[in-house]
Design brief:
The chain is an alpha+beta fold. The protein is built from three helices and 23 strands. A hairpin with an 8-residue loop joins strand 2 and strand 3.
């Protein structure tokens, strides 16, 4: 009997250990792309007054963001530099301001009061998308994804023209769901939607993640966001459940999520645009009803930083708490045709999250909730301060993330132990 119990205990321990193995066996969560949309030498190429801005993927993986024009957007001053972000671990002196407003668009588009962005009215502006052939365009993130965004909204956002606009999305529309495979977007105006402009009104964020079979569509209405300053958002998933955080606070976890759908590897990831199918609006929309979806909603506000990782990270490892700097600034990526036979994987350069003396435009400070301050090493020369680049070496950010397997292992172990106890009791009764 003792041998049986010992064997059961060993099986319990082995099963628990196997079930507890994390999705990332090496414990690493790697940076897929990191864009700092700031007026710093090396962070971008091109001229902000022209239509050739290209923001460098600082991770070195070649997922650069390039400018895309909608309608008569080339006639509008959509991209300008804004003041820096004061939310999160890094305080910057600049950020990209994206002026896709109804006020600007009506200067180049004939307006019909019956038109809204749903039917394509006023759809002239600019946004950003990953360069053609970018490696992340084929990434299905089957072990999860984390997205850090530091942003603020424009007071000139319009409830008709800009609501439901995407902040960061996967290009394409899944026909059965009429949604992109992945989108972090705005939702409805909360306080006074009839007044149109954001102004003192507030909205909330919306998260969409879907495939042909299922759709997660969550309105993050626990927190209302207005045009009152900078915010940090973290969406983190381990491939089973997703948790999102706003300004360092966890808000909700939801489960049973689908994987990111890659319909066409030439489709990109996008910043500042929302899409839907053009079905039913082919005659009146101002955009072609293309496979990647009709452009309906454009973003108005400012974005300082976006980071994408290939698995879950803990809240304390987000950009809200830890600034990230890179050893070297990569050269601009070159667009290329997708090659299904290309299996080359570029090694992610080392990054540092340790605070050191400030040498450039970025000044590190602890989040507003702590009241403490620090400093971060910079990456390149700020065009407004003309300071030297940093050469500090560090290590890549890591996180094991949530471990669902551990819970399964514990439950399995408990079941086996209960079985052993039942056998002991039965054996004892039999002897009596």
């Amino acid at each position: 009997m003792k041998k049986i119990i010992t064997a059961l205990l060993l099986c319990s321990l082995l099963f628990g250990c196997l079930a507890a193995m994390p999705a990332h066996a090496d414990g690493d969560v790697h940076v897929v792309a990191h864009w700092k949309l700031q007026n710093v030498d090396g962070y971008y190429t091109g001229d902000i007054e022209k239509d050739d801005l290209q923001f460098i993927d600082l991770s070195g993986n070649g997922n650069d963001l390039v400018t895309k024009i909608v309608g008569n957007g080339s006639q509008l001053d959509i991209f300008t530099w804004d003041e820096g972000a004061d939310k999160g671990a890094t305080k910057t002196q600049s950020a990209l301001k994206i002026n896709n407003t109804k006020i600007l668009a009506e200067a180049v588009d004939t307006y019909d009061s019956g038109e809204t962005s749903y039917s394509g009215g006023y759809t002239s502006g600019k946004y950003l998308e990953t360069i053609k052939g970018a490696p992340m365009n084929t990434n299905e993130f089957d072990e999860g994804i984390s997205v850090d965004i530091i942003f603020k909204l424009s007071p000139e956002l319009d409830n008709d023209y800009n609501r439901y606009t995407g902040i960061f999305s996967r290009q394409g529309v899944i026909e059965d769901q009429n949604e992109p495979p992945f989108s972090i977007a705005l939702s409805e105006w909360d306080d006074d939607p009839a007044s149109g402009m954001m102004g003192d009104n507030k909205t909330w964020l919306q998260f969409v993640h879907c495939d042909d079979v299922s759709k997660v569509n969550v309105e993050m209405d626990e927190v209302k966001i207005g045009a009152d300053g900078w915010h940090h958002l973290l969406v983190s998933t381990d491939g089973f459940s997703i948790t999102y955080f706003i300004d360092g606070e966890p808000l909700r976890t939801f489960t049973d999520i689908p994987f990111i759908e890659v319909r066409d590897p030439n489709f990109s990831w996008e910043v500042g645009v929302g899409r839907k199918s053009g079905t039913g609006h082919e005659s009146d929309c101002k955009n072609e009803n293309v496979a990647e979806g009709m452009i309906r909603r454009l973003f108005a506000g400012s974005i300082a930083e976006i980071r994408v990782m290939d698995g879950p990270i803990e809240n304390e490892d987000s950009l809200f708490y830890k600034p990230v700097s890179y050893d070297n600034i990569p050269a601009p990526a070159t667009p290329k045709e997708y090659d299904p036979n290309d299996t080359t994987v570029e090694e992610t350069p080392e990054v540092t999250t340790e605070a050191e003396p400030t040498t450039t435009e970025e000044q590190t400070a602890a989040p507003d909730t702590t009241g403490t301050t620090g400093t971060e090493p910079g990456d390149a020369t700020d065009k407004t301060t003309d300071k030297a680049p940093d050469t500090t070496k560090g290590t890549e950010a890591k996180s094991d993330g949530p471990n669902v397997g551990l819970i399964i292992g514990i439950i399995a172990g408990a079941v086996v132990l209960i079985g052993a106890v039942v056998l002991i009791i039965a054996k004892a009764k039999k002897k009596k």
